[in-house]
Specification:
With about 180 residues, the chain is of the alpha+beta class. The protein has a single domain, classed as Peptide Deformylase, CATH 3.90.45. Strands 2-3-4-7-8 form a five-stranded antiparallel β-sheet, with helices on both faces. The mean pLDDT is about 95.
Length: about 180
Amino acid sequence: MILPIYLYGEAALRKPTGEIDKSYPELKTLIDNMFETLTNAEGCGLAAPQVGKSIRLFVVDGTELGEDYPDCVNFKQVFINPEIVEESDETSTYSEGCLSLPGISENVVRPKTIKVRYQDADFNWHEETFTDFRARIVQHEYDHLEAHVFTDRISPIRKTFVRGKLTNIAKGKTVPRYKYKH
């Protein structure tokens, strides 16, 4: 089932998220629905707060980006209760967008490499290092679990430039091409 994606201004995007365990109700269905929603919206990552759930869960699917970003080939994963445990000093800058902030893209500086400890859909623990575009996708989605959106990471002058667009999204004046919630 395709879920509505919460847009900028929705309280769910700024709420703290809590860890979950195997007893979380209908988790497999939620994960399947998040992947279906992500595919429908033509995104590469979707965090639970973006579908109104204040839990530490996100899904990524970078396979469509594989031609431009070879590290994303076959990059389809579920991250439960993730924690970034290490970040490189080396950074990279890339123009990011977000399904919750339609029509906005801005340059964001992020660590080029990260190490993440997380659980998969079966609640097995993993510790994995991500670099380049994979690292960027994971960090972007992780930010949602920390109640942040990518515009929180841009320069003050750029924030001034996008303020009007953010206001329009929050007021319902921006209509994305996918199912959404204001």
